[in-house]
Amino acid sequence: MAKRAWPALALLATTAGCSFAPAYHPPVTPAVTAFKEAGPWQPATPADTAARGDWWGVFRDPTLDALERKIATDNPTYAGALARYDAARGYLGQSRAALLPQLGADASITRNRQSDNRPLRGANQPDVYSADTVEASLGYELDLWGRVRNTVAAGKAEVQASGDDLAAIRLSLQAELANDFMALRGYDRQAVLLTQTVDAFAKADHLIARRFQAGIVSGIETSRSGAQLAEARAQLADVAGARALTEHAIASLVGTPASNFTIAPVATDFDVPAVPLGLPATLIERRPDVAAAERRVAAANAGIGVAKAAFFPAIRLGASGGFQNTGLPGLFSAPNEIWSIGPSAVLTLFDGGRRRAELAVARARWASAGADYRATVLTAFQQVEDNLALLHHLGDEAAAQDEAVRQAAMTERLSLNRYSKGAVTYLEVFTAQTTALQARRAALDLDTRRLQASIRLIRALGGGWPSSNVFANRKTPVTPVQGQ
Q1: Which end of the chain, C or N, has fewer beta carbons within 10 A?
Q2: Closest-CA residue to 381 (of 64, 20, 35)
Q3: What's the longest Cα–Cα distance across the chain?
Q4: Is the pTM of this model over 0.85?
Q5: pLDDT tens sequence across 431-452
Q6: Residue 453 belongs to what domain range?
């Protein structure tokens, strides 16, 4: 019997290798030849796994460096994503186990009693007997239709997608931290400006009060001066409150209770990194969320093969062998040998349409994953264009705002000179000082917004660009490409 079984098993083994999964092709996305808001787009090789390094190093701030490194060790959101990635790897290991034979062993030593009134009772059958068995078994599913291989392929793609999700979460958290840090330092600069303004207004208010006591000015000027000083103090308190909330947000990002976390105020004047003109548009493919979406399309494609394989019989090779006796003495002798070998097949003939429904679900998942991939790509292009446009136009706005600061400062100086000579009332000084303060605060706010736009651009590009980072003058707008 065994001699007849082996040729059949060999034939089945040689026919293994069929797969019903469709040939995989990534979804087609609209072709883009150039960024509208930047330089011409250069061909490049997709590199979603390329090392991005510490991209925040372009800002050259040791405090930011130390905080960013805590994302991978202390942030709970990142820790949860890492656990999901480990789980995906575990599921893949479970799927891969089906590619190998399953070995088992069984041993039992029992004492048994049969019923006196059992059916088909024989005259020479004892009511009480022993049954001792030692047996080993081998089983292997012939993957004729690719069910196991497609399951493994889907699991492998899911692991890659989970790894890309992990990278996307890490990049998102890093960018959020850098964005908050720039806002924090912006508040520090605002606080320095307002502190200096409060000191200057306090001196002016004291001087006007003395002039009022001397009968030189009216009470209107003293009240106006006092109101101006109070307003500046209110703005300083508002900035302090906003800074505190931002500091608390940073504390949560680095996994520290806000009550135990403090960043010393420093009025840092950061440079805005210059975006290289002619930025290759294919750097979009470095984005981990785009890579994750593409891997999920591949997983869904393999899932179709798994669903189709269910329409065909599952064929399994099995073999077992061992020894069985009514007692331990002589158990391992030749007469007590037992064995079994041969294939088995299982095919569902009627299931009420369940398998067809599962195939429809698999195809729908593939279509959904493809649509999600295209949407992710379109969003990626939009985010790059958005932040390139912001960098361009905020640069122009910053240049204009700097001119407004210069003119407002000149007006402030002239009005103070004229007031000290008695040529104008304090209303003119009040107006000039208020305008100058607003212009200076707007300039500082623009600086922060430009820094945050550059961070969002780095995030949109998947963590930076592969070129030496040079710095633009903080007051110089990014020059658009000719012809745009």
Answers
A1: N
A2: 35
A3: 137
A4: no
A5: 999 999 999 999 999 999 999 9
A6: 2-114+125-460
Domain count, the chain: 1
Q: What is the CATH number of the domain that holds 284?
A: 1.20.1600.10
Using one digit for the tens of pLDDT, what is the confidence trace for 312-339?
Answer: 999 999 999 999 988 888 888 888 899 9
Residue 120 within any structural domain of the chain = no
Flag whether 471 is in a domain.
no
What single letter denotes the amino acid at residue 184?
L
Give the Cα separation of 47 and 34 in Å (integer): 19
Residue 387 lies in a domain: yes
